[in-house]
Design a protein that fits this description.
about 25% strand; five-stranded mixed beta sheet; Transposase_IS66_Orf2; IS66 family insertion sequence element accessory protein TnpB; alpha+beta
Length: about 100
């Protein structure tokens, strides 16, 4: 999964796919999830490619903001647990993370 922080909430399939290509240097049709959050952090969109077409998932908060992702750049990689925390409003960056086995 790739996170790209700043994206206008009016962008749709083609605009977000172009952002994935230009900012993240990854083909939008790669099957990865691309996460976009607007500057006010009240709107999140997730773009992915599945079985011949783009899919777009979005969430707008009625109150509050999504947590700011601490990163030097406007892009970073997320794992599935971090994405779930981001969507649910849990700040995983402040919580201690236990070591897990990886290959």
């Amino acid at each position: 999964m790739r996170l790209c922080a700043a994206a206008h909430k009016r962008k749709q399939f083609d605009g977000l796919a172009a952002l994935a290509q230009s900012k993240l240097k990854r083909p939008a049709s790669s099957g990865e999830l691309f996460v976009f959050i607007n500057k006010r952090r009240t709107y999140i969109k997730i773009l992915y490619y599945s079985r011949g077409g783009y899919c777009l998932w979005s969430k707008r908060l009625e109150q509050g903001q999504f947590h700011r992702v601490n990163s030097d750049e406007d892009k970073m990689s997320l794992n599935w647990a971090q994405l779930q925390c981001l969507i649910e409003g849990i700040n995983w960056q402040k919580a201690p993370q236990n070591k897990r086995y990886t290959r």
